[in-house]
Design goal:
The protein is α/β, with parallel strands linked by helices and about 270 residues long. It is built from 6 helices and 18 strands. The strands form 4 sheets. It has a 5-stranded mixed β-sheet, with no helix packed on it. Strand 7 and strand 8 form a beta hairpin. It starts with a helix and ends with a strand.
């Protein structure tokens, strides 16, 4: 077995030990019936992967125990949902290390990186800089991140040298919502008479939640068919993130006369 396989296997075993078997990555287009709030830690019953409930309405998975323990010291506040309830909450992605918590590296790259907010990695220039940051035991502050998870991070070209080694004393994001700049979605209701409101304006990166408040089936389907809610039963919801500026028009597949628009600004 090669080193990369061993590294990945070790990380997987750690997850099994600390979190239980890795959870299923189900996605669905409706909201859970159990009430969960932004900032909650949640998991299902059959699988033990732990997720962070984001302010944007998505759940974010902790890819391994090391990531989890940069944010939390125990599992005391984890809320159990049924598997069906968990599956109804859409996946948003992976949680990254808490800014300021560690230095990391991967097996295929000799560079050592310091983690800042939003999963941004700044290269540590040399051993002298690392010593100023963490003292003579600086090498104990490095975690190996499996190659498969490294893509969750953004590598900066702004290296840390001895002149700014005091970055370790900076204030970093205290919650994952802040770390990922997650905000509550704007909401559009689907009623018996159409969308309400029929149009909204949001910023790039923000989300919109569609809520079917009617007793009949409905959809919100983009005119170019690039995204859509799929069939939404009564009380169903679907959240979509808009990552590019533009005008996004949509219609109801069950009543094409119902139309709306989302204006996404830079």
């Amino acid at each position: 077995m090669n080193k990369r396989a061993i590294s990945f296997l070790s990380s997987f075993v750690a997850i099994v030990i600390m979190l239980g078997a890795v959870g299923a990555w189900h996605t669905n287009r409706a909201q859970a019936s159990t009430t969960v709030s932004s900032g909650d830690l949640i998991r299902g019953t059959s699988f033990s992967a732990v997720y962070y409930m984001g302010a944007d309405g998505f759940r974010y998975v902790f890819p391994n125990d090391r990531t989890y323990f940069t944010w939390y010291s125990d599992f005391d506040d984890v809320i159990f949902l049924t598997d069906a309830e968990l599956a109804k909450i859409q996946m948003g992605g992976n949680v990254t290390y808490k800014g300021g918590s560690k230095m990391i590296k991967i097996n295929t790259d000799p560079k050592v990186y310091f983690i800042t907010d939003g999963g941004v990695l700044r290269p540590v220039s040399d051993e002298a800089t690392a010593t100023l940051m963490y003292g003579s035991s600086w090498n104990t502050k490095i975690d190996d991140v499996p190659d498969g998870f490294f893509s969750n991070y953004t590598v900066s070209t702004d290296a840390i040298d001895t002149a700014d080694a005091d970055i370790v004393n900076s204030a970093f994001a205290t919650t994952i919502n802040i770390d990922k700049s997650l905000t509550a979605p704007e909401e559009i209701s689907i009623t018996s008479s159409g969308y309400s409101p029929i149009d909204i304006t949001i910023d790039v990166g923000e989300t919109v939640r569609f809520i079917n408040t009617d007793s009949e089936k409905h959809t919100a389907t983009s005119d170019d068919l690039s995204w859509g809610t799929g069939t939404m039963q009564a009380d169903g919801t679907f959240t979509h993130r808009f990552t590019e500026a533009g005008t996004y028009t949509f219609f109801d597949s069950y009543d094409s006369g119902n139309t709306g628009a989302i204006y996404v600004r830079e």
